[in-house]
# Entry
Amino acid sequence: MMADARAVAGDALLIAGKDLRLEARTRVATNHVLPFVGAVVMIFAFALDPDTGVLRRATAGLFWVTVLFAAVLLIQRSFAVEQADGVSDSLRLSGLRPAGIFLGKVLSLIAELVGIEIVLIGAVIVLYGVHLKGALLLLVTTLAATVAIAAVGSVYGPLATGLRASETALPLLLLPVLAPVLLAATRAFEIALGDTAGGGWPWAGMLGIVAAVYLTLGLAVWGPLLEET
# Structure
């Protein structure tokens, strides 16, 4: 059992390293996703009047909507490149464990999303004038939501890639499934930023449950998904 776990962990690190090196060469996050994130932040900074407090109150929802759309772009690009270059066929023949491949995909997506979220948090603090009143809640919420988004994206990414009009199929598959993540993360962020009274930890716990469910699902189904795609 321990040997299998170590082998899966090794495969996961190998796949994550491969995906991150591919990102370093193609710079999709740097050249495409980060400008998109910056444009969204700037548009809402000008569109909403910060003096009325509307912008500050909307920060939590805007943050997570932006993260979700950035995640869709990253997931779409990642699986489209593999499909076009025949990497999926190579992975099937590589002898790597499907569980390790799935976890590697999740790890690489988490790393890319965390980088984007750090930039986004800095931008909203500077431009929107928000103040962090629950740093631990914000950190735990961000981590749990990011794992959930990465796990869901790694499950549905291969499914959408195999469909016609995959560029429109992926958002249609992902966004309804991620609606609970958006809701829970937004509510927890509102409490962490001091915009709403109440306890944010139940929302963070909900995010942890979603992340655990989709990690378990991905480990169970990625073998058949890899064969089908």
